[in-house]
Write a structure and sequence with these properties.
Jelly Rolls; iron; alpha+beta; about 20% strand; oxidoreductase
Length: about 375
């Protein structure tokens, strides 16, 4: 079924008064077997100001915290960052204004290509999904080439300024993560070719759902890039898998939620984890999130950093270009870590010499 034939979640929610959702949105019980763990610890918090302006001791401690959070959670909250709250609010507003446009205007950006410059759609990939998810989304490629919809008229200026500042935030965080691994501060930045890396806005709109226990905003999945920087309105819904249980994210005011993506897990040879997360819905209010996905250069073949490969930690992932990885993930229904699993090497084919490992795999 073409995505052009699917009504948006917002359109369905506003089209009539109903007490039950259409059958194509109903998830099976086994897909939602675990409720959030109310006794779980909070996601770690990183004080960004101590990373960039702290004393040597404060910076060292912050880098250690970054490493621990990346290894144990795959998620962390960033506070005291350099992006003004007024700019964050403007970014939220232009995204909301887009979703409030008439459907005919939004559907000008419905496309089939997963790496199209601007892509508006609903669910995740209706052409291959058995059920639809209670979510509308707007995806825009903003780096290395900047794109923007014509409407709302202030979207271009606000998003350009916001995403430029986010790239600087990502660069500083990636430097701290590099040092936490015992690498040079610029190692991961250079290894991923971040200067020409793909940056994408992913704005998500989850309207109120009359049966929130029967629907899902986004199913369990991992993110395909390096680092994703996310902010959301004051309506909870994001859940992170931690120690086998779902943990509800509770953001601090004026904070960003940052998560490790698949490409960073590959680069770190599995030491830092791209963790499964999902988005629940509510029947009370509209939930919105704006994520800035930051990845390697689109044609970069990402593989484990050689300095992190040794006899105790043989190379665990097959090299794959970022473009091919995205296309693979976007062409199938989301299913936990299934895309990452497709590039994970079985233990019998792991080797401490990456070039030998690749040579062997190319002939099997």
């Amino acid at each position: 079924m073409s995505s052009k034939m699917i009504r948006s979640a917002k359109e369905v929610a506003e089209s009539c008064n109903f007490t039950s959702i259409p059958s194509n949105y109903v998830i099976s019980q086994d897909e939602d077997a675990h409720l959030p763990d109310t006794d779980a610890p909070e996601i770690p918090t990183i004080d960004f100001s101590l990373l960039v302006n702290g004393t040597p001791d404060q910076r060292s401690q912050t880098i250690r915290r970054l490493g621990q959070a990346s290894m144990e959670w795959g998620f962390f909250m960033v506070v005291n960052h350099s992006i003004e709250e007024s700019l964050r609010e403007k970014m939220f507003k232009v995204c909301k204004d887009f979703f409030d446009l008439p459907e005919a205007e939004k559907r000008k950006h419905v496309g089939e290509h997963v790496l199209g410059p601007i892509h508006y759609g609903t669910s995740f990939n209706p052409s291959v999904e058995k059920i639809n998810y209670w979510r509308d989304s707007l995806k825009i490629l903003v780096h290395p080439t900047f794109h923007s919809p014509e409407k709302p008229i202030d979207f271009r200026d606000v998003s350009n300024k916001f995403c430029t500042q986010v790239r600087e935030l990502v660069k500083e965080l990636l430097q701290g993560i590099s040092e936490s691994l015992g690498l040079d501060s610029c190692y991961l930045e250079k290894a991923s070719e971040l200067n020409t890396g793909l940056q994408m806005i992913v704005a998500n709109f989850y309207p109120p759902c009359p049966q929130p226990d029967q629907a899902m905003g986004m199913p369990p999945h991992t993110d395909h890039g390096l680092l994703a920087i996310l902010m959301e309105n004051n309506v909870g819904g994001l859940q992170v898998k931690y120690n086998g249980k779902w943990v509800l994210v509770k953001p601090h005011p004026n904070s960003f939620l940052v998560n490790i993506g698949d490409q960073l897990e590959i680069l770190t040879n599995g030491k830092y984890k791209s963790v499964v997360h999902r988005a629940a819905v509510t029947n009370q209010r509209t939930r919105m999130s704006v994520a800035i996905a930051n990845g390697p250069s689109i044609d970069k073949a990402v593989s484990p950093v050689p300095l992190l490969v040794d006899s105790e930690h043989p190379e665990a992932y097959l090299a794959v270009t970022y473009e091919d990885y995205i296309k693979s993930q976007q062409s199938k229904p989301l299913d936990g870590r299934s895309c990452l699993d497709r590039v994970r090497l079985p233990p019998t084919k792991r080797c401490v010499n990456p070039r030998v490992n690749k040579f062997h795999l190319e002939r099997t």
